Amino acid sequence: MIRLPRRVVLSSGLAALASPLLSRPKGALAQDAYPTRPIRMIVPWPPGGVTDVVARLIALKLSTELGQSVVVENRPGASGTIGHAAAAQAEPDGYTFLFGTNSTYAMAPYLLGKVPYDNEKSLAPVSLVARSPHVLCAHPSVPVKDFAGFLDYARARQPDGVTFSSAGPGSSGHLATELLMSIANFRMLHVPYRGGGPALQALLAGQVQVSFVNLVVAMPLAGDKRMTMLGVSATERMPSVPDLPTISELGVAGFESSTDLAVFIPAGTPKPILQRIHSALVAAIKSADVSAVLRKEGAIIVAGAPEDFPAYFAKENAKWRDIILSHGIKEQQ
Prior knowledge:
D-Maltodextrin-Binding Protein, domain 2; globular; 18% strand; 333 residues; single chain
C-alpha cells in the first residue's frame, strides 16, 4: 500500500473542495450570499398614506426574512413615475425594490402620454401583493336603496342630472366611474376635487350624489346612515360586508376596479435573487401583522407568483388604456 505525504493529501482535499466553487458561473457566489448589504424599497408616494404604511410594514418583515435592513425611500411626484423611473434605472442586483400601484403601472402611461422608462420592460414583477376594491356610495338624499334602483335613477336623469365626485381627473375613482358608465351605458356629471378627502366631504355634504369610497371608510359612515353603499367593485363579495353584492353580479358584467399593490425589481436581476426575494416577500405578506393590516384596510391578499403577473398586467393596462384614450382623460395639473 502506497502512503502519500500528509501535505499532499490535505492539498488534494482542499483542491477537490475548491474545484466546484471555481467552476461556478461568474456571479453565482454573490447570488448564493445575497443579500450582503442593506436594501432600499422605493415608494413613489409621500409618507403617511396607506400605501406608504403598508410598504413600511412589509419592509420591516422583509428585513427579518432577508437578514438585512430594507429601508423605505419615498420618491413621490408625477403620478408615481418619478419613483418608478428611479427603480427602473437602478442596478439589477437585488438591492432596489419598488412598491408600486396600478395607478402608475397601468394608468399613468396613458394619462401622461409618456413616461421616462419602458413601462413593459424596465421592471420585473416579484408579486402582486393585494387588491383594494372600492364601494359605490350614494348620499342619503338620493332616493334609492340598491344599485338597481340607482341605475334607473341615473339613467332617467342622464347625462348630467346626477353628479359624482373624484380626487381629480385621472384619479382611480374617476376612472372607475368612467369604466362603470361605459359598461352600464349611462352618463353622470363629473365633479373633480383635489384629493380624496375633499371628494369624500363633498359626498357627505350632499354637494354630489355618488362617489367611489374606500371600503374601510365607507363601512362606518354607512352604519351611521351618512351614505348608502350600493355595490363593491371587486369580482367577489368582501368578507367584511358579505351582504353587499358586487357591481358585477348586479348586472354590470366585467366591471372590476381596485387599487392594486405590487413589488418590482429592476429587469435583468438574476433569477436566483428574484426567487429569494419572492420567497421572503410572500412570507412577509402572509405574516400576521401585515395580513391583519391589509384586511383592516379592506384589501384582498394576493401574494402571487412572478409568472402570474404578465397576464394580469396586460389585462389591467388594456382596460385603463381604453377608458383613458377613448374619453380623452388627462391628469389634473
